Give the backbone structure.
Amino acid sequence: MQQRESKVVRRSSSATFATSSVDGFVERYIPVDVRRSDGGSRNAMSVDVEDYFQVSAFEHRFERRSWGDLPCRIPQNIDRILQLFSDSNVSATFFTLGWVAERFPEVVRRISGEGHEVASHGFAHHRVGSQTSDQFREDVSYTRKLLEDTSGSPVSGYRAASFSITTDTLWAYRILQEAGYKYSSSIYPISHDHYGIPSAPQGAFRFEDGGIIEVPLSTVRLWGRNIPCAGGGYFRLLPFRFTQWALHRIQDHDGRAINFYFHPWELDTGQPRVNGIPTKSRFRHYVNLGRFEGRLKRILDEFKWDRLDMILGEHIVSTR
Ligand SMILES: [Zn+2]
């Protein structure tokens, strides 16, 4: 099924297509310049709205059917994030689980009411490759409608759980497009044990004219490879000065909009500690949590940030 579906990556001789110079990814794609024509330097800030018990690294520890029984810290953590964004005059995109919208509709309305973009993170954080194409279609269609009905605003964007659009799941783009999405931000162009397409473009692109846009998470090219610097665990683990340098490099030298992300639980030093998980997962989840908020504040003030749909601007059209 996946081989058949992957044919949606259409080959074309159109002059607007650029040929990828790297192996392992699709041969042709169309770069999308998301820089404003007036020379502005806005960057994309995003939040993946899920709680500590919903992350992929803990999925064998917390069954999805037990999520409702656990104390959920999303409302208080989102309040904190909205305050930080307000303090720094930042608008952002919130890739939200359908599960969160069903359980805490008022949180989704607050996000939307404060001028942020509500986008989709799927319903229950299933990786793309763990679903059949029919299950995936149902998931992304249902979640998009739920988020639109809850927020009262059109939903244009999608981010796959754990950046799970890889070379095996490129079929997802056609389904996302059919479901009404205008863009995705689901590829991390790095080598990683659980996700990533190291040969994918670093900047935004699409596969066909008018097709859905993919905005990969930010990387900086160093020592012949893409180094992740777009947020999450990397932001907590790597020295802040490196991240600062890398983000400026992307913005000022590479001329691309930064695409940055984090999770509500990363600000939450009081979250329950989870036992019975592998050492590596434990390290990735908890490393430097106490430093996160201070670092975030610094980059919120040091760079200009906006919602992904606003940055994509004319490249996407209204979904309603
Ligand atoms: Zn996630």
Remarks:
- The chain has eleven helices and 13 strands.
- The two ends are 32 Å apart (CA to CA).
- The pocket of zinc ion is lined by residues 48, 50, 121, 125, 161 (CB under 6 Å).
